[in-house]
């Protein structure tokens, strides 16, 4: 009888679990902090002493080279990191965009950056985490102060470049340590991108900036330790892209090849979207096609497959791509930079840094390469959040994890093009779960009470109990 009671209570416990709020799963999964130092190239850690990057690598893992997604610019790649989608699938295809259906332009530096429609072809991880019952905090991550699918991060700071790194860290740590702690945080810092553009990556002056980033990582580590979070948190430090040196000798002037009256250009060097004026497509295309050996010219439908950069109407009818180190301008009056990114994502100079440590990660492990789309399923695994359809593969990066996967890794990358599916409405699922759970609990209690009552009656035939109880148990095994 005692055994049966225990078994019954255990079954009842399963049933009650069905009726608990979904965030009860949080206890079992890790905390995660994703940090991006914009434009931190993979090899910067080799040019000056970086004791804090070294410590994270020693305590955890390093991926020597992360193959990011085309185009290797800030917004497309930051959105890839939190969606696992290539730009053609998440829809943030450039820092400056034009949407022919909306007849609207987007600029990362304008008010349009706060319009949800530019971001809503995908769902970032902070939204999915919250829909699964978790809490998220964002300190300036691109897109994190935008309402996406009706959801803001649980806590966030509106973008303001003048807020110091230390303040961003303090905010995040207060959210991780608060009475209702977040389990997922994202942190963004504008350097060394800005200095990389202004100085060029080959400038010795950039060494000072890299050393300063290492100091900032040191501040973050110390603050995590002071808050008692260091051992519990999974810390990932990466970036969106690298940087390459430009030269005033390597300029492609479009005005030399085609009249600017025949087209509108969208986004800037080194990948430029061209919208020919009506009736001018052929003239613009043929004028540019063989104009300069350092300029690659594609019709949208001919953009190479490996760029995963074709199946989105925000990609312009003609795409110009400069060879590494070359700059596309209309004429030379434009302001000239010494460093840039955005080029072919297979170039080493475009690849970002990646180090990570924490309970989920192995120690002292170095992996040679990974794709940035694989980070999303890895983070979902750490958080215990079911990933949405994505272009990444958990199987490709599972060797970074301390514990071998006990469940089947996510399937190989989904064939492209991939249309992200809208998550199910959690409130609807909750009502159905509640109704189902309540019905099962009432049913179970009815049978249980009946059985206990029947046990008191010695005249009942034994066979009835033996038939009903195993059936009930089997049906309710969840
Ligand atoms: Zn930049």
From TrEMBL:
Listed InterPro entries: Alkaline_phosphatase_core_sf, Phosphodiest/P_Trfase
Protein name per the record: Ectonucleotide pyrophosphatase/phosphodiesterase family member 5
Keywords associated with the record: Membrane, Signal, Transmembrane, Transmembrane helix
Signal peptide: 1-26
Name of the gene encoding the protein in the UniProt record: enpp5
Residue ranges crossing the lipid bilayer per the database entry: 429-449
